[in-house]
Design goal:
Length: 306
């Protein structure tokens, strides 16, 4: 007798059973995209994402998307796009993304500390410095003793420099038996004293040899112009005292340290006075209309060599 065949479940019951079955986040996203009738490329284009991002989300490969903050952003955006609640998907991801427990650092093997070697190095360095310092002190003390011994050896004995005995007799001289005066010994040669050389003449300070220069009385130069003329006047140091065009009818009074060097562009229109006395321009000083001459300390005029 044949066994009865179980009746097939109606489609509504099958959909309910499939809906009741637990699904992953990626499966829910894929189902939502398929319900919207979109391909992976179309969904990626509408969301302006790389298709690989869509594939990683639907396959639950979140490590390919980088940090968790980026994963949560993609889940929220993609879920809302395909009709799945984005915040719910993010909560499911956060619940499954349990952080790994912190490692127990007490169980990690530790190597020897580097400071142990330093504890041995420091005493050795100190000991070496102490030995070096002791050697230097011994060398200095030994050197000073050697110098003192050499100085004492080179000093002549006191007996060799002793003067003649109080009796007046030279050492080793015999005294007469009759009690007479002993023979007078030849006097020892007196020490020669070398006088220090007199200071050379150059040792005398140069300031004492210099004679103070007598003050030079300035020369008063007066130029009376009947016509326009170019005038230049220089003192003994070359300092310019006057350098300009003097107008006709003007009087130029100039004072300076002699000798004064004068240049006149129109010598015929200039009358010269030195210290209140009239002076004639030297004949040899004129060069056409111009004249060049020197007023010396005595107030006399002579031809300029320049």
């Amino acid at each position: 007798m044949d066994e009865p065949t179980p009746a097939a479940q109606p489609p509504a019951v099958a959909d309910a059973t499939a809906a009741a079955a637990p699904r992953t986040i990626g499966q829910r996203l894929r189902a939502g995209r398929e319900r919207a009738g979109l391909s992976v490329a179309a969904a990626a284009e509408k969301l302006h994402l790389d298709p690989k991002v869509i594939e990683s989300l639907e396959a639950d490969r979140y490590a390919e998307l980088g940090a968790s903050v980026y994963v949560r952003g993609h889940l929220r955006r993609y879920g809302d796009f395909v009709g799945e609640p984005g915040p719910e998907l993010v909560n499911l991801y956060t619940a499954r993304d349990v952080p790994a427990p912190s490692p127990d650092l007490t169980q990690v093997p530790q190597g020897g500390r580097a400071g142990d070697a330093g504890r041995l190095t420091t005493p050795l360095v100190g000991l070496g410095c102490a030995v070096l310092l002791a050697a230097i002190i011994w060398w200095v003390v030994a050197g000073s003793k050697t110098g003192t011994t050499a100085t004492a050896t080179s000093t002549p004995p006191a007996a060799a420099a002793a003067p003649v005995a109080a009796s007046g007799a030279a050492p080793g001289a015999s005294v007469p038996a009759d009690g007479g005066s002993p023979p007078v010994a030849a006097p020892a040669s007196a020490p020669v004293t070398v006088a220090a050389p007199a200071p050379a003449a150059s040792a005398v300070p140069a300031a004492t040899e210099r004679r103070e220069e007598a003050p030079v009385r300035p020369t008063q130069l007066r130029l009376e112009l009947t016509g326009e003329s170019w005038v230049e006047v220089y003192d003994s140091r070359g300092e310019r005292l006057y350098y300009d065009v003097a107008s006709a009818g003007s009087v130029q009074s100039i004072e300076g340290r002699p000798p004064l060097r004068v240049v006149l562009g129109n010598a015929a229109a200039v009358a010269v006075q030195v210290n209140g006395q009239s002076r004639e321009i030297p004949a040899g000083a004129a060069d056409g209309e111009a004249a060049r001459f020197v007023v010396n300390r005595s107030g006399n005029l002579s031809r300029s060599r320049q």
